[in-house]
C-alpha cells in the first residue's frame, strides 16, 4: 500500500507542477506562495482516497487524477488560512505562508515589525483565495474529459453547498473552543467539529472518486454513500489517533513539543473524556497543566498516567477501533478488488501511524 | 435610470435574503457576518450591469438575476478580505467585518486586546471564504434554469481562470504599492492595477449577462467582447473619478477625511501625474504632504491648486472622458433598446457622481 501511496504522490506532484493556473499570478512572490505548500509534498492521503475510490468502481483510478489534485489544493488553501488563524509559523518543517511572506516583505521592502506581520497575513489571505480558485480550475479541467458536465456540476454543487459550509463551520467552532470553558463544551460538539473540519473533505474525496468511477452524478446511490461513510469514519479514527499522539507521542517522531495538546489546552475528545473520568487531586493536576506551556516533564508524565488510569485513553482507543471497524464494514459492501484492498490497508495505516 | 437601478437593488436584496446558502453556517455570529455586507445594501452596480447586459440581448434581464447576485456576493467577499488587508474599521458607514467580529469576541468571550484582534481577523477570513462559496452557489442555482450547463461551466471557467487571478493580482499589486517608492511605480502599472482590481469584475458582470441573454457559452463573440469592453472602460472612468474625489471631494459628501488620498499617500494616476507634471517648490510641497495624516487644510488647499495648475487634474479628467467615450462607442455597436439606454446612462452616472 505504501508504495502505491507513493506513486499517487508522484502523479499528483507532476500534475500540479505542470498545471498552468498559477502562471499569470503577479507579483512573482505571490505566485510562489500559491505554489509553495502544494509543491512541499506530503502524503497525499486525500488524492489517494479519491483515486482509489474511482479505481474501486472502474479499475481506472487515473480518471480521478485531476479532481484528486483539486481536492489536494482545496486542502492546501484551508491550511494556508488556518495557519494565519492559528498564528502558526511553520508547516511541514518549513515556514508557513504568512511567515514566509512576512520575511519576503522585510527583505524586499524593508518593512518593520507590525507592517511586516500585516503584509505577511495579507498576502497569505490572497494566497489561500487564489488556491480556492486553483482547486476549482483543476476540477473544471477534468470536465468533458474524465467526466461529463453533469458530473462536474454535481461535484461542484457538493463542494460548494455542503463541503464549504461544513468545513468552515467546523474550523470556526474549533477556533471558538479556545475561548470557551472546557466544561461548557460537550463531547457531541467536539465530535461534530472533528467530522466537519476534517471528515467532510475525506468523505468528499471518496464520493468524488466514486462518482467518476461509476460515471454518475447521483450522490444518493448506496455505493457512493458507503464509500463516503468509509472515508468519514476512517478520518474520525485518524483524528482520535491524533488526540492520543498529542499527549503520548515523543518529540522526535511527532515534530511538536511533547504533550503539545496539554500545553496548548487543545480541545480534544481525549482531554474532555479525561476531565470527565478523573477526580480529586488528579482532576486538579490535569486542570493545572492544561494551557501551561512551561509544564515540566514530571508533570507531563503524571498527566499521561492520570489520562491512562482514569480510563480515558482506552475509551478513545476503543472509539478509534470502532470507527475503523465501521469504516471497514462500509467498505466490505463494495466490489472486491485491488483498490478496495488498498483502501482497507489505508484505514489500518491511519490508526497505526506513530507520527 | 436611477429608478431602474433602485428596482434592481430591491430584486437583489430580496433574492439574497431568500437564499438558503447561509442557513447551515455555525456559529450564529459567523452566519450573521456572512450576511452582513450583502444585506447592507449599496448601489448594486455590478448586478445592474449584468442584468441590463442580459436584457440588451434578450429583453429578459431577470434571467440574469441569480448570476447577478453571484457577482454581487463575489464583490462582497473581496471587500471583506480587503478590509482586513487594509485594516479598515468601517464599511458603508458601519463596522467592517473583522472589526464587528472583534467586538463580538469581546462581548461573548471577554477576549482582550491582541486576542480579540486575532479573533476578528480569523472569523472575517472565514466570512470571506464562505462568501466565495456563496457566490458560486448562486451561479449553480441558475444552472439548468436560466442557463444551460454549458453556459454555467463557461461562466465558471471565466470566473476561476481569468477573474480570480487578475482581480487578486490587482489587489496584491495595490498592496505592494504602499511599500514602494512612488517614483518607481509607472503609470502603466497603476493602470494595470486599476483594470485588474476593479475593471475585470465589471467586465465579467457584463459578459455574464451577455452570455445568458444570447444563450451562448462563447466568450469570443463580438457582441460579448463589446459589452465587456464597455464595462471595463466605464469602470476605468469610474476609478479615475474616484482619484479626483479622493483629492477634491468635501468631507460631508465623500464620507472620508478631505484629501484622503493625499493623507494616506494612495497610489493613484492623478497623484502620479501631479508628481510628474509639477516641479520646484510645488513638487516639494506635494511630496511633503503625501502620507501626512495631519496635513492642515491650508496645505491641502495648496496641494489641490498645485495638482490643478500643473495640468494633472485636467489630464485625468480628459482620460476619464476618453474612457467614457470609448465605452459608449463599444455600446453603440450593440442592439438599440431600453437596456442599451440604461447602460449608456449608467456610464454617465459613474463619472458625474460627486460621492
Q: Name the quaternary structure.
A: homodimer
Distance between the termini of chain A: 18 Å
Task: Please tell me the overall pLDDT of chain A.
Answer: 95
Beta fraction of chain A: under 5%
- Please state the overall shape of chain A, judged from the principal axes of the Cα atoms: globular
Class derived from helix and strand content of chain A: mainly alpha
The largest sheet of chain A, given as strand count, sense and whether it forms a barrel, is: 2 strands, antiparallel
Biggest protein-protein contact in the assembly = A-B, 52 and 52 residues
Uncertain residue segments of chain A: none
Total number of β-strand segments of chain A? 2
Approximate helicity band of chain A = over 70%
Helices and strands of chain A, in order, run as HHHHEEHHHHHHHHHHHH
- The helix count of chain A comes to 16
CA-based gyration radius of chain A: 21 Å
**Biggest sheet of chain A: strands side by side, in what order?**
1-2
Task: Please specify the SSE layout and strand pairing.
Two copies of one chain form a homodimer.
Chain A: H1 2-18, H2 28-36, H3 45-58, H4 65-86, E1 90-91, E2 94-95, H5 97-109, H6 113-142, H7 149-177, H8 187-214, H9 222-248, H10 251-254, H11 260-263, H12 269-277, H13 280-289, H14 297-309, H15 312-332, H16 338-352
Antiparallel strand pairs in A: 1-2
Helix pairs in contact in A: 1-3, 1-4, 2-5, 2-6, 3-4, 3-8, 3-16, 4-6, 4-8, 5-6, 7-8, 8-9, 9-15, 9-16, 12-15, 13-14, 15-16
Amino acid at each position: 500500500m505504501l508504495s502505491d501511496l507513493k506513486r499517487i504522490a508522484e502523479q499528483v506532484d507532476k500534475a500540479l507542477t505542470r498545471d498552468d493556473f498559477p502562471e499569470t499570478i503577479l507579483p512573482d512572490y505571490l505566485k510562489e506562495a500559491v505554489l509553495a505548500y502544494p509543491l512541499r509534498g506530503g502524503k497525499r492521503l486525500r488524492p489517494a482516497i479519491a483515486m482509489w475510490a474511482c479505481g474501486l468502481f472502474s479499475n481506472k483510478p487515473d480518471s480521478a487524477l485531476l479532481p484528486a489534485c483539486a481536492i489536494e489544493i482545496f486542502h492546501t488553501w484551508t491550511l494556508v488560512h488556518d495557519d494565519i488563524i492559528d498564528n502558526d509559523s511553520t508547516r511541514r518543517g518549513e515556514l508557513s505562508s504568512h511567515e514566509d511572506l512576512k520575511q519576503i516583505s522585510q527583505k524586499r521592502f524593508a518593512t518593520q515589525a507590525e507592517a511586516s506581520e500585516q503584509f505577511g497575513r495579507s498576502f497569505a489571505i490572497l494566497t489561500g483565495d487564489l488556491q480556492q480558485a486553483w482547486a476549482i480550475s483543476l476540477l473544471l479541467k477534468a470536465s468533458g474529459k474524465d467526466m461529463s458536465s453533469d458530473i462536474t456540476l454535481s461535484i461542484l454543487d457538493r463542494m460548494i453547498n455542503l463541503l464549504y459550509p461544513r468545513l468552515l463551520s467546523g474550523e470556526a467552532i474549533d477556533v471558538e473552543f479556545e475561548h470557551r470553558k472546557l466544561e461548557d463544551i460537550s463531547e457531541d460538539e467536539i465530535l461534530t467539529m472533528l467530522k466537519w473540519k476534517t471528515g467532510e473533505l475525506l468523505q468528499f474525496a471518496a464520493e468524488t472518486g466514486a462518482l467518476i468511477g461509476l460515471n454518475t452524478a447521483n450522490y444518493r446511490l448506496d455505493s457512493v454513500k458507503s464509500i463516503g461513510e468509509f472515508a468519514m469514519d476512517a478520518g474520525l479514527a485518524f483524528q482520535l489517533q491524533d488526540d492520543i499522539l498529542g499527549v503520548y507521542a515523543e518529540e522526535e517522531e511527532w515534530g511538536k513539543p511533547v504533550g503539545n495538546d496539554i500545553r496548548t489546552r487543545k480541545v480534544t475528545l481525549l482531554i474532555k473524556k479525561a476531565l470527565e473520568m478523573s477526580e480529586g487531586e488528579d482532576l486538579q493536576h490535569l486542570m493545572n497543566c492544561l494551557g501551561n506551556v512551561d509544564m515540566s516533564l514530571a508533570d507531563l508524565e503524571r498527566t499521561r498516567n492520570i489520562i491512562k488510569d482514569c480510563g480515558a485513553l482506552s475509551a478513545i482507543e476503543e472509539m478509534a477501533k470502532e470507527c475503523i471497524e465501521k469504516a471497514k464494514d462500509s467498505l466490505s459492501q463494495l466490489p472486491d478488488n485491488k483498490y478496495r484492498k488498498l483502501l482497507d490497508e489505508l484505514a489500518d495505516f491511519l490508526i497505526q501511524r506513530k507520527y
